[in-house]
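Field log, afternoon session.

UNIT: design team B
ACTIVITY: writing a sequence onto a fixed backbone
BACKBONE:
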């Protein structure tokens, strides 16, 4: 079984007007998995509905606690991209679990979004990767210590 922990971020954003006013809506991953006809055994644990810039160290400790106490050995975390690497690094000392963080540059509700591909990559990766903490974005798997978000290019990359 794969546990999917949702924390908010762009993947769950809902935009309201031309000025890009938004709020974080309900987690979208269940819709994405259902529409893709995914047949794996999974459980969704909604934890936060926050922009990742609003996550505190206390929030990261709660994520770590939920991950550590989970009966699942394979965990996907949906997360905002701005602080995804920081959270991934925060989880580095969790042992015996394969943890994959993913997110999106465009909301899952948008017609053209990277959310679907990133979620698919994370779900596949968490089943294949060895224990540790990983980031699945832009068709690649990244180690948190050697990656960064390139804001200008709107993608993750190795450093």
């Amino acid at each position: 079984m794969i546990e999917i922990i949702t924390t908010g971020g762009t993947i769950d954003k809902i935009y309201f007007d031309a000025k890009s006013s938004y709020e974080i809506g309900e987690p979208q991953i269940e819709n994405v998995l259902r529409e893709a006809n995914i047949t794996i055994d999974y459980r969704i644990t909604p934890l936060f509905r926050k922009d990742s810039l609003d996550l505190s160290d206390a929030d990261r400790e709660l994520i770590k606690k939920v991950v550590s106490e989970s009966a699942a050995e394979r965990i996907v975390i949906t997360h905002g991209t701005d602080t995804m690497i920081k959270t991934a690094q925060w989880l580095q000392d969790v042992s015996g679990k394969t943890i994959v963080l993913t997110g999106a540059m465009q909301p899952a509700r948008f017609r053209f979004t990277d959310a679907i591909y990133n979620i698919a990559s994370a779900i596949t990766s968490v089943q294949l990767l060895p224990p540790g903490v990983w980031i699945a974005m832009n068709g690649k798997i990244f180690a948190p210590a050697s990656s960064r978000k390139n804001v200008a290019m709107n993608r993750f990359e190795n450093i």
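LOG NOTE: The chain has a mean pLDDT of 92.
NEXT ACTIVITY: expression trials, pending approval
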